[in-house]
Amino acid sequence: MTLQTAGIHHITAFARNPQENVDFYAGVLGLRLVKKTINFDAPEVYHLYFGDKAGNPGTIITFFPWPESSVGRIGGGQVGVTTYIVPVGALAFWEERLAGFGIPVTKTTRFSEQYLQFDDNEGLHLELVEREGGRNSEWSFDGISTDKAIKGFGGAVLFSVDSARTVSVLENILGLTKVGEDAGYARFQAFGEIGNIIDVPLANMNRGIGGAGTVHHIAWRAKDFDEHVQWQQEVSRSGYYPTPVIDRQYFNAIYFREGGGILFEIATDPPGFAVDEDADALGQKIMLPSWFEPSRAQIEANLLPIQVRELEAKK
Q1: Nearest CA to 169 among 194, 200, 195?
Q2: Domain limits of the chain?
Q3: What pLDDT, in 10s, does the model give residues 118-176?
Q4: How many CB atoms lie within 10 A of CB 274?
Q5: Mean pLDDT, rounded, of the chain
Q6: Which of 167, 135, 186, 193 is nearest to 6 (CA)?
Q7: Nearest CA among 41, 44, 64, 60 for reference residue 52
Q8: How many CB atoms lie within 10 A of CB 281?
Q9: CB 73 within 8 A of CB 215
Q10: Distance (Å, whole) CA 232 – CA 220
Q11: Least C-beta-crowded within 10 Å: which of 19, 24, 155, 227?
Q12: Does the domain spanning 8-301 belong to CATH 3.40.50.670?
């Protein structure tokens, strides 16, 4: 194994109400809505991308918000917790901000780090942790200064139905390094500065059910298109069955389901989200791939209107 991923590229989850989704991730968490498009496989459903100012790999959480979605159950075969990093000294700000919006927070410690854990409006598990690594965000919204704003992913907690097999993929295919065990978790690290810490409960988990409030897949970074093809070959040589390379407009993707049941994607860093709109105008217009442009009027008519807005705290 010679390839190594820098860490998480993006995480994609299911939701129901698109405006509530925007309100939580842009309004409460202060992330930038960097791309407003559709599910290329189901054009009646939005595909919304939230991240830092430029939508850099390692900062992007994406959602398929569909009002008719069933409610899922978080469990084995899924990302159990999505971890965000904030600058050192910022947790007190976030504890106060979340409380102001009536969002319950639990404090916990893992690997000598303190976490604020909470759920989004759909029940998706999230947590914040302070770390030095990664550049401060350049995006400021609703009074969240750049020295407090979310930098991007810290990593994720993977819930596996077969933790030994998940661990094997992390180490032997993706090239992460095991750095220790603590309180029933094993920790793995990639070489990138963000999205680089993965924790896996050593106990196998009962299988979850997909639906609103759960993660659909986690995507890992490939630095360019040439390396992406190498990743496809490496996954195949390791006994898994990657998909053909799929053009997702803002990155190329391959998918495979690892032995612990989690759907893994490997996505290219290029071309990025400014490929079809100006960097200063990201997320303002519904962007469609060329093959859907003839149906734009019909597609837009079927989508609920959404807007990024500042929210009034509940207390």
Answers
A1: 200
A2: 8-301
A3: 999 999 999 999 999 999 999 999 989 999 999 999 999 999 999 999 999 999 999 99
A4: 16
A5: 97
A6: 193
A7: 60
A8: 9
A9: no
A10: 12
A11: 19
A12: no
Instruction: Give the other-Cβ count within 10 Å of 140's Cβ.
Output: 15
Helices H / strands E in the chain, number of each: 5, 16
Length of the chain: 315
Token pair recorded at residue 115:
């976490």
User: Which residue positions in the chain have pLDDT lower than 50?
Assistant: none
The secondary structure of residue 208, as a DSSP letter, is -
Structure tokens of 203? 């106990």
Tokens 């109400």 label which residue? 17
Which residue, 277, 238, 268, 280, is CA-closest to 256?
238
Q: How would you classify residue 54: left for phi > 0, otherwise alpha for psi between -120 and 50, otherwise beta?
A: alpha
Q: How far is CA 198 from CA 111, 156, 177, in A?
A: 12, 5, 10
DSSP 245: P
